[in-house]
């Protein structure tokens, strides 16, 4: 499953840090952080009132996707599948780089600009390609 990165406000950072510092005896603090995020998002501080109607289809994002796979027997099939997915989203893919990170691994780096829903479809399709070792994405805007 892909990992999603995002930015949080300074207030939320302080809340999470305070909770984590008090609970240093927990080995896995991700559950604590998720609980803090949920609590904060449900609090009155996080409420946002919108007078205008908002259409998520109009919301555009800039994102990056990095995937890596081993060189070898399946390399051509993986690249074929990846290039087919890239062609489907040609209007949204603004940059592509194929990098040989070492003797055994290739990495593909995509820059994407488009709707949040198209980005999600793009990531899901790339994630469905067999024999991809890692897939990471970042939504920067």
Summarize it.
By secondary structure, the chain is an alpha+beta fold. 37% of the residues lie in helices and 27% in strands.
Textual characterization of the structure:
- The chain is an alpha+beta fold and 141 residues long.
- The chain folds into 2 domains: 7-46, no CATH class; 56-139, ACT-like. Chain A, domain 2 (Alpha-Beta Plaits), CATH 3.30.70.
- The chain contains 4 helices and 5 strands, in the order E-H-H-E-H-E-E-H-E.
- It has helices spanning 10-22, 30-42, 75-88, 116-127, and strands spanning 4-5, 60-70, 93-100, 105-115, 134-139.
- Strands 1-5-2-4-3 form a 5-stranded mixed beta sheet.
- Helix 1 (10-22) crosses helix 2.
- The model is unreliable at 1-5 and 47-51 (pLDDT under 50).
Low-pLDDT stretches? 1-5, 47-51
Average pLDDT score? 76
The CATH architecture of the largest domain can be given as: 2-Layer Sandwich
**Structural class estimated from helices and strands:** alpha+beta
Major β-sheet strand ordering: 1-5-2-4-3
CATH topology (fold) name of the largest domain: Alpha-Beta Plaits
Counting H and I runs of at least 4 residues, what is the number of helices?
4
Question: What is the topological layout?
Answer:
Layout: E1 4-5, H1 10-22, H2 30-42, E2 60-70, H3 75-88, E3 93-100, E4 105-115, H4 116-127, E5 134-139
Parallel strand pairs: 1-5
Antiparallel strand pairs: 2-4, 2-5, 3-4
Helix pairs in contact: 1-2
Defining key terms:
single chain, 141 residues, alpha+beta, Alpha-Beta Plaits, five-stranded mixed beta sheet, 4 helices, 37% helix, 27% strand, disordered N terminus
């Amino acid at each position: 499953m892909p990992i999603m990165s995002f930015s949080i406000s300074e207030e939320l950072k302080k809340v999470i840090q305070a909770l984590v510092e008090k609970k240093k005896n927990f080995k896995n603090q991700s559950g604590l952080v998720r609980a803090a995020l949920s609590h904060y998002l449900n609090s009155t501080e996080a409420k946002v009132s919108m007078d205008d109607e908002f259409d998520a289809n109009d919301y555009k994002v800039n994102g990056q996707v990095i995937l890596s796979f081993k060189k070898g027997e399946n390399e051509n099939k993986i690249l074929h599948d990846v290039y087919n997915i890239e062609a489907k989203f040609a209007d949204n893919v603004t940059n592509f780089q194929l990098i040989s990170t070492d003797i055994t691994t290739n990495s593909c780096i995509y820059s994407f600009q488009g709707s949040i829903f198209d980005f999600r479809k793009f990531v899901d399709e790339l994630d469905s390609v067999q024999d991809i070792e890692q897939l990471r994405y970042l939504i920067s805007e």
